[in-house]
Every structure is written in structure tokens, then in C-alpha cells.
Amino acid sequence: MTTLKEILENVGGALLIATNLVLQPLTRSHYRRWGATSEEVQRTLPGDERVPNPRIITTFAITIHAPASEVWPWMAQIGQERGGMYSYELLENIGRCQMHNADRVAPAWELKVGDQMRMGPQGYPVHQVVALERGRWLLLAGADFKTGIADPLPQPGQTTYTNYAWVFYLDERPDGITRLITRTRLDYAPRTFAFKLIWEVFTDPIGFVMTRKMLLTIKQRVEQQTGT
């Protein structure tokens, strides 16, 4: 049953999306590097090489008071058919994403190379796991909506493509604290006004709000589990 707290959180999420859509010329430089240090923004991460000339780069980060081994199981089970996206579930389900955010770890849900990470039922955006280092990082690539197979990398001279990479990276510090860093890189063609509207005016600010909530929820789940 949906609680009042969940309703208020989702209303807040909707307001944050609306604010960023309206004010993005002012907020874009902030939200594209939310929580990340300058070093983290500049650091090379797995998957950067897949999108060498991105139109959009985002780097988000959050501190979790737990070792990486405690964060990985939650991070590695994201997806509509697994642990959910840990984001604004009510907003996602208004869009018929059929999402449910898990409050437990299920080993059977852990993503492996070749698996699909769905953001909704068949026909909704889907990503494929193209590489990972278990316990350390997980790399997703944008995939064909029908097949769930990662889109091929664009070839020289190709005029129509979408090239998208999304990495989750765990940077464990000596004191047992972990920085969860997530980065997206996107390139697309043709670079028309319509595609700019889709990717940069709408998808970019909305993606920030949903991903921010995801990171906050993962932090909450992990720290509750570990008692930190």
C-alpha cells in the first residue's frame, strides 16, 4: 500500500522535474555533475571509450558509509524485472513502467554480461550489460527496444545513430567508505533540432532527477542494512 511519505516524495520529484525543465539553462551546469568532485568529473571511467565524442556527459556521485561489497548487490540488481530503479516509483508507474523498488537483495537478480536492464516492459527503453568487474563496476549500453541487444558502435561516416553508455563505479576508500559514481555519455546523429529537443531539453533534466533519487535510495538501503 502506498504511504503518505511515498506520495509526498513523488510529488516532490515531479516538482523537481518541472523546475529543471523550466530552469535548465541555469541548472544544467550543476545537475550534470551533481555530488561529484572535480577529480571524479575528470576521471576516466570504464565505458568512456565507447562514446569518444559525446554531446552530453553527466557524472553524479554519492558517499555511502559502507564498503563496496555491501553496495554492489543493490547496484547490480537494478532494472524493471529485478530490484527496480530505486527512484520515484509512482511517477514511473504513471508512465506504465510496471516498476517495483525492492527492499531486499536477491542474488538471482544480479546482472551479468549480456543481460538486459529494462526500464519498463517490452517496448520501453532497455540497456544491455556490455562489461563489468564484479564488486567494482557495471557498464550498460543503450539497446534496441525490440531485441534488447546493445546498439552497434557507429562507424565512420554513419549519419544516423544513438550511442549511449552508462557506468556505475564503486570507489572504496581506505576507511571503508564508498563513493558510488555514475556517468552517462551520449552521442547522436543527425544533430537536428528534434533530437536536441528529445535528448537535451527533456531526457537530460528528467534523467538527472530520477538518477539522483536512485543514488539516494541505494545509499539509504545500504546504510540501513549495515547499521551505519
- How many H/I helices? 5
What is the residue-mean pLDDT, rounded to a whole number? 96
Distance between the termini: 28 Å
Tally of DSSP β-strands: 6
Shape: globular
CATH class bucket: Alpha Beta
Give me the CATH architecture, please.
2-Layer Sandwich
Largest sheet: 6 strands, antiparallel
Query: What are the secondary-structure elements, in order, as H or E?
Result: HHEHHEEEEEH
Low-pLDDT ranges: none
What share of residues is helical?
A: 25-40%
Stated plainly, the CATH topology is called: Alpha-D-Glucose-1,6-Bisphosphate, Chain A, domain 4
Specify the CATH homologous superfamily: START domain
How much of the polypeptide forms β-strand, as a percent range? 15-25%
Widest β-sheet, arrangement of strands:
1-6-5-4-3-2
Describe this structure in words.
It is a single chain. By secondary structure, the chain is an alpha+beta fold. The protein contains five helices and six strands; from the N terminus they run ααβααβββββα. It has a six-stranded antiparallel β-sheet, covered by helices on one side. Strand 3 (126-133) and strand 4 (137-142) form a beta hairpin. It is globular, with a radius of gyration of 17 Å. The chain starts with a helix and ends with a helix.
Mind sketching the topology for me?
Elements: H1 4-31, H2 38-42, E1 56-64, H3 68-75, H4 89-94, E2 116-118, E3 126-133, E4 137-142, E5 161-172, E6 178-189, H5 193-226
Antiparallel strand pairs: 1-6, 2-3, 3-4, 4-5, 5-6
Helix pairs in contact: 1-5, 3-5
